[in-house]
Amino acid sequence: MPFSAGRILKLSSVENVSVSMPEIAGEERLILGGGSNLVILNPIFEGVVIRPEIKTWLSKIQGTQVLLEIGAGHLWHEVVISTLKKGWYGLENLALIPGWVGAAPFQNIGAYGVEFKDFCESVVLYDFDESAVVELNSDQMKFGYRHSILKDNPGRFMVLSVRLLLSTIPKPIVDYGAVQEGIAAFNGSKDRPEDVAKAVMAIRRTKLPDPEVFPNVGSFFKNPVVGQEVADRVSKSHPQIPSYLETGGVKLAAGWMIDQLGLKGFSVGQFGVHKDQALVLTHAGNGDADDLRTLIRTIRVAVKDEFGVSLQIEPTLLGRL
Fold it and tell me: Model pTM?
């Protein structure tokens, strides 16, 4: 659906931010990077859309460690590939995740045993409440599963850059069987980060629809993290459900639950559950937001009724659900 805004403000540097932000104090604002994790339910936004197109790239090598500051406007995947080419390791499991760098700390992006927080030293932000540029270290960011302090304070902060600590010594993480199988498929090596990235990219291309072909925002629902008592109850009635120990509880596979309900391929209007990946909702074009609302509600109610678990939405929503 078409999207319109009152005006658009593009920021190219931290200096640009410091000068421009006081001018829009009090205005309704939407911080928009690549938009790969945004669901627009209301196509009209009266305020100002801010685009942090900052392209900082500063590196400092200390022994085997690499401290890298990257501006919010870089494409995340291009950063992963660029660091690998330089022999700076750590981000390989996060290859092919869409979006800009500025979105990475917002929801603590993660895949195949690695999360953004694992390599984050700090995040440089503009604090709208304090009208100042601030820096929060990794602990202050309160990272969790698809979560950070930025989600706790919607609209307060804007990411300007992230500071990562990488290594010149390869330490690939290949705990997931799918990654190991992916590497074996092309006779790669589990000791080569480049091969890990290659396997991850192949898996993502197989499991997730290309947003350029089938518009989507990736995983639409979070894997719910529940207490042990709830996990035991669900496992008793559904012994095959995949589950993983997580800080604060047990993570259950949301996609598996949706699949078990026979909802793969189910659609409402132009929106539907992808036929191969139950966590992904796709848009066939010219869809109505009310149809998307109905689809979301149908899935959540069905999962709640069958499993007694509430699904949370992963992407950012603009407008009323």
Answer: 0.85
- Please say whether the beta carbons of 26 and 303 come within 8 A: no
* pLDDT tens per residue, range 129-158: 999 999 999 999 999 988 999 999 988 999
Domain segments of the chain: what residues? 4-52, 57-207, 225-318
CATH code for residues 57-207: 3.30.465.10
What is the average pLDDT value for the chain, to the nearest integer? 94
Which residue's structure tokens are 């189910």? 266
CA 166, 168, 169, 172 torsion-angle sign: positive
Domains 4-52 and 57-207 fall in the same CATH topology: no
Phi, psi of 108 (to 5 degrees): 50, 65
Among 74, 78, 35, CA closest to 161 = 74
- Take residue 126 and report the two structure tokens written for it: 């503009």
Tell how far CA 251 is from the center of its chain: 17
Active-site option among 122, 148, 161, 219: 219
CATH topology for 4-52?
3.30.43
Whole-Å CA distances, 75 to 9, 24, 287: 19, 26, 28
Determine which one of 51, 146, 163, 204 is catalytic. Answer: 146
22-51 mean pLDDT: 90
Active site residue 314: yes
| Residue 28 is a catalytic residue | no
For range 158-163, the mean pLDDT: 98
The catalytic position among 92, 115, 194, 314 is: 314
Residue type, 13: S
The pLDDT confidence band at residue 1, using thresholds 50, 70 and 90, is low
Confirm whether 146 is a catalytic residue: yes
Confidence of residue 37 (pLDDT cuts 50, 70, 90): confident
**Class for domain 225-318, per CATH?**
alpha beta
